Structure formats: C-alpha cells, structure tokens
Amino acid sequence: MKKILSLFMAILLICSIAACGNNPANTTISSNSTNETTTPNTTDTTGTTNTTGTTNSTANPNTTGTTNTTATPDTTNPPIIPTGEFDDDNIVLSFGAISDIHLEREGSLAKFKKALSQLEKNAALKDKDGLDAVVVVGDIVERRNQISDFKNVFEQSGLEIPLLFTLGNHDQEIGETLKLSDFYNVLGSSYFKNDVESPDLSSGNRHCVVNGYHFVFVQPSSYYSNGKDRVTFDKKTVEWLDTTLSKITKENPNEYVFVFTHSMISDTCYGSNYKGAVYGGSDSYWYTDDLTDVMNKYPQAVTFSGHLHFPINDERSIMQTNFTAIGCGSVSYMAIENEYNNVTGAKTTDSAEISAGHLVQVDKNGNVKITRLDFTDRTTFKTPWIIETPNSENTHLNKYTAARGTDGNSAPVMDGKAQVNTSKVGSLLSASLTFETGKDDDLIHHYKITVKDADSDRTVKRFTYLSDFYKYATPDKMSKEMTISLGALNVNANYVVEIVAVDSWGLESEPLKVTVKTSSEEEETSSLPEAYSDIDFAGGKATDSKGNLNISIKGATVGSAELTFGGKTKNIEALTITAKGQYALATFRKYSTSNISSFYNNEKGFSVEALYVNRAPSGTQGIFCGTQQGGFGLATTDDGKPGICAYIGGASYYYTKDSNVASKTELTHVVATVVTLDGTTYTSIFVNGELVADDSKKGSVYVGKSTNSFGIGGDTDSKGGAADFPMTDFSIADLKIYKEALNKNQVKTAYNNALALFN
Predict the structure, then answer these.
(1) Prediction pTM value
(2) Which of 62, 70, 166, 672 is the least buried, fewest Cβ under 10 Å from its Cβ?
(3) CATH number assigned to the domain with residue range 418-517, chosen from the 4 options 3.30.565.10, 3.30.2350.10, 2.60.40.1120, 2.60.40.10
C-alpha cells in the first residue's frame, strides 16, 4: 500500500512541478524508481558552474527503495506504543532521524551500525513495510576518507532504502572542510535518487521525496563569524528555503514537510538558546536566527536539528511555536549545558555511553509519531510524541508548547534524608553530602546546593549538580541517592546545607536542609603512606624502586656526593648537575598523556617530596617539573625559594611559594601537596618539616599540552626532554611521590626520616 501511495504522490508531484515550469528531465521524484536522472547543481554562490554530472548508471541496490526489509521485532526491550489518535495499523512512512554520528571518534562506527539496527527493528514492530529512509542531521565525518566508512556501514546493514543527510560543522569547517560534492563523489549518484530538484552540491541544499512526503535540507554558510561561533545562512539559501516550502505547502496544505538542518533554530527546542560555552567563550552561539522568519510562515513544517547533543528524554526536546522543532540528540555521545559541577566541557564522565535518536512515523491521516530510541540499551525513552495532522486553525501546534512548564506542571519535592560526612585529606577537612533524591511528576534535571554559615547566614559555597536523568528510559529508573563533594570546610564551625531540586522547566522544590557542626581538628596520623614512586640513586643509577617511573639520564651524574643536612655532612648517593643542559627525565608508566589528569586530580590528591640543594639559584628552576603548557612543577623561584608552579583552572602558571630562601650550601627538605576538592585546588609547601605556604584556587590542575614526563633538575620541553628552566649546580638525594596529600604530621615524619640518613 505504501508503494502504491508513493507512486500516486509521485505522479501528482511530476504534474505540479511541470505546471510550475520545472524541467522534468533534470528532476527525480520517485523513491521507488530505478532509472531516474539527477543532475546535481554545483553552481556556487557566485553563479560559476564547477561540475555537471548526469547519472544514468545502474542504481546502488542499497538505495533503490524497491525493497523494505521486515525485521524481527526486538522483543527483549519493546518500545512503548501509545494509544490514541495515531493509527498504528496504517503507517505510510517510517524514517530514522539521527544526528552527530562523528565517525572520526573511536567506537562511532559500531554506534552507527547499532542505531541502524534499532531503527529497523522498531519500525517493523508496527509498520509491515519497515523502515523507509534514514536521515542524518550533520556531523558525519571530519575527513574525506571517512565518507567511505559511512557508506560501508550503511550498505553492510542490508537496508535497501534512501540514506539522506545534511552536513554539520564538523563536516564543513572542522577537519577537511567538506562540501556535499565530496559526499556525492564518494557515495555516487544512486544516493541522490530521491532528490526531486538537482542537489546544490556547493551550498548543500536539497529537496527530496520519500513515499510522497517532502524532505528539505539546508546548510549554514558558516558556523563562525569574526572569530566567534555564529551560525549563519546566506541569503540565497534562505530564499531557496522560503520558495521551496511555499511551493510544497501550497500543493499540500494539510501535510507535514520535514526540514533538516544541523544547527537549531533559536527559541525552539532544548538547546536552541545555548551560548557561551563549550569550546568558545561567552560569545559562542550554537543556534541560528537566520531561518526564524521563514519557518514562522509554515505551520506544516517539522524541523530536525542536532549540533548540541542534548538528551532527548528532556521534554523540551520537542517544542511547538509557529512550527514544530525537534532536537535529535546524538549517536556518538551526549552533551549538556556546561554549567554543572559534574560536567566538564559539556560532558559527563559517561557521555560516551549515551547514544540516541528518533524513529519518525506518519499514518494515513497525516498524524506523526516520534519514538525516542535509546540505542545504548536497545529500548525507548519514555512515551512517543504524537503531533496531529496540520490544519488551518493551527491547533496541531498547541500540544508541545513552552506552556507545559507551567500549565499542570508541579514543582519537585525534597522530603527525604540528607547527611554530611567529613574526613581528613592531607591537612584539609573534606566534606561530602549524601541525600535522597527528590520526586517530580516528570524528572528532576539538576540540584542546587548551598552551604551557609549557620551563625551569620552567610553563603560560603554554591554547587549545581546535574542529575542522571539523561541515561534512563523512564524517570523512575533514576538514582534514589546522590553523593557530592562539598570541598573543604573549617573546623569548629556550624553550617546549614540546603538542597533544592529543579525540574527541566526550571520549577524548584522547597529546600531540604541539613545542619552540620565540624569538630575540633582530630588527631592526624603521623604514619606515612606507601610511596607511589621512590627514586633510588644507589649503584650509580637512578631507578624507581616501586617500578612506576622510567628514569633516563641526560648529562647528569649519579654517584656518591658530599652533602650537608641538618648541620651534618656525609657522603651519600645522589644525582648531580654541574652545567646547563644536564637533567634526568622521569616518565610515568601507568599514566599516559591522555589520562595524566586523573593523577593530578584524584580525590586524595598527591605529594612530592624532595631533598635537594641548588647552589646557583637563578630565576625559576625545576626541581621536579612537568609543566609543558599544563601540569605541575616543584621548582625554585626568586633566587631559591621552593614552591609550586602549576596550571590550575586554565592555561597559565599559578604559583605557591615559600617566603624564605633555601640554603645554597645545605640540603633542603621540601614537600609539596596538591589536592582538588569540588573544583577547587589546594596547594601547600612544607620546608624542613614546617608549613611555610598554602593557597587555593578555583579549578583543577589543567593538563593542556602537558606530558606524562617530569624533569629532574629542569622542566619538560616541547621536544620531549627537560631542558627548560634548568639547574646548573644542583644535587638531589631523595625524591618520592605519594598518591595522596600528606598532612602536617606525615610531613614531619618524612623530614625526620631524611634527618636520620645523616645520623
């Protein structure tokens, strides 16, 4: 029946196009025909013709559209099928709407394959003809050679249906700056058989028909303007879109037309007003204003967009204004607003585990059902959206409006238990909050946590934490308890902690309050933890007795040296540098350049202990440094002051240093501690067993271009050595790393152990 309807609609379309003065020789209208000719339009915006291609070749069997595969339903996780106005027994069109598959990323090929499989299975549950098309809304590849991967995965799926797509910013402006012509050249003309107008291979604009329904694709001319993220469409594209939609809707006023563009149209669905954020600064915009005036003229239009990767189980992912707008999420990974304490760079720690998209179906009456698919767990998110066939009164636009946030929506409720626990981390009192999550008529999007001084009512800390709604099919599967870090608290203080739940529409609960009194500082242990690394200079070699660092020597010598510490002189094994360019390089075995951040920013912190003498202090010089545009270093500054030079919170040095100059003749015992608690990094410097400086700065230790190597007697350089900030007359007799921040009593023990070497 779908094929008969499709043929009938195609005949009507041929007639209407001919009546409008189009040349039928250069148009293809039937999704089921195998001998059409499509002449792609490669004329650029200046009007210069670049390429003309005529395609009468045998069609690719995977895009003929003559056969629909009926798949075995996925009975393990069947989708939720609604009752009501949508006629599941008479479906005339089924297509997948997915976005951001990012085939340049590891694992994305498998995710794309899985998405195709799930689309096929879920379509076949109610549609006897199965899936009719798959549409990808941009960010497919970054390199030309990845287009063949795109083609191969689709053809290996066995789907003999149209694969339609538009390009995104990663296709167009990141990587090799591709155009639609690059895809045409790799995929071949058979992939463009459903274009009823010659595709503009330069601009990327397309008009296709599948089973009689119109699919319109538009691409931005740029995602960047004047050094800022600005999604812009050129005048030619905007006018073409208006003309195309006007023609379609005049001929089919009571039928939906589907519009696809990578970036969202402003003031529509979830993410469409997002700016400031991820890769750019506060002037970065992830939406467009250029299409609003045109789209507002066509209540029959349903737009599909990606780009943001925002979770589609948030009900704001469908929004009806003067038209219907839908966010497609992402096949590759989820992203979200970059404004939560548990979100970094718009990603959660499990973002890569989230893969989602839509199955879109139309019944014989023109109603549309959108089923939200969870490709990761092979199930569906919540219940499908149903939009009624368009009508002249536009009442079909009344169901999914922004009014859902207030009309009939209830605020969350926080009525569970909460408690604050404290523990010692180095010399800090670390606090964590555990609370029972709230209740809502839909879902809780995030939580606001405020820590106040109970005596003065002064707010001392604020936190915003994203809930885990994004990874569950239904809200009832969300975590029932949540634990977050409150960072460091003062001892002998009274606090009130308030927890407010916020739903996706911004409605807030009444605060759940918990009081906590921190006790006087408990007795800290003086026992040292086992060192993660302990550099041994015995036998004329530098080796890590723990086996976690590889040590290489460049010019420096290792052997017995006469050194003084605590007023006593002794011959002791040490590494000695006597000239610029001499150093040792220590490289982590278990931490690579890609995961070294987890060493810096683990919940217990880390410490570096050094017993050294710098006989020729000059500016900044590295004791144990790995700060190549990121990272951490124990160094001497200002004519010999030992301190920390690290990147914290961004791409610039941040110093914590002693106010006293170390000895130029005797060994100095230094311990540097670093610990990051809830987005704040605390640093301390101990010299000869005493705390001499401590500080804190918002942010974690920044990695940047840092390596997993550290210079001993210098800092790492861009060539893989450690020739930056060199020592010129330097000896080091002991060097240890601890995978936790030492407290003052432990530092005292380490100092006494060093003294014992000379006793």
Answers:
(1) 0.77
(2) 70
(3) 2.60.40.10
